Amino acid sequence: ADFISKGNGGELALVGYSIHGKAFYPFILYFPDVQGSRFLDGPVERIKFDQVLQTETIIFHDSNDVYLTNEEEDGSDGQIYKVHLKN
């Protein structure tokens, strides 16, 4: 998870993955309008990915973009991905 402050609130991004068999499909839960400490009460957007990755980390680059990482596994290299949150 990562949080970016804005006044009395901010934006929250959570990363996770759904497991289907041995495949990990990542997703982001993005809360663009957190008020005070009520992190999960505002609107939420779910961003899903079709690529199989075991994501481990999310961090805001700015209020428009986040970076995700996945670890090295089964001979594949670990990667860093930039994801645009807003249209």
Report the major sheet: 4 strands, antiparallel
SS element count, helices = 0
* N-to-C order of helices and strands: EEEEEEE
How does the overall form come out from the CA principal axes? Answer: elongated
For this entry, what is the oligomeric state of its chains?
single chain
- Secondary-structure class: mainly beta
Describe the protein in words.
Strand 5 and strand 6 (65-70) form a beta hairpin. The protein has strands spanning 2-6, 9-20, 23-35, 45-48, 55-60, 65-70, 79-84. With 87 residues, the chain is mainly beta. The strands form two sheets. Strands 1-2-3-4 form a four-stranded antiparallel beta sheet, with no helix packed on it. It has a three-stranded antiparallel beta sheet with strand order 5-6-7, with no helix packed on it. The chain starts with a strand and ends with a strand. 0% of the residues lie in helices and 60% in strands. The relative contact order is 0.23. The chain has no helices and seven strands.
Q: What's the short story on this structure?
A:
The protein is an all-beta fold. Helix content is 0%, strand content 60%.
List keywords for this structure.
single chain; 87 residues; mainly beta; 4-stranded antiparallel beta sheet; 3-stranded antiparallel beta sheet; 7 strands; 60% strand; elongated
Give the helix/strand layout.
Layout: E1 2-6, E2 9-20, E3 23-35, E4 45-48, E5 55-60, E6 65-70, E7 79-84
Antiparallel strand pairs: 1-2, 2-3, 3-4, 5-6, 6-7
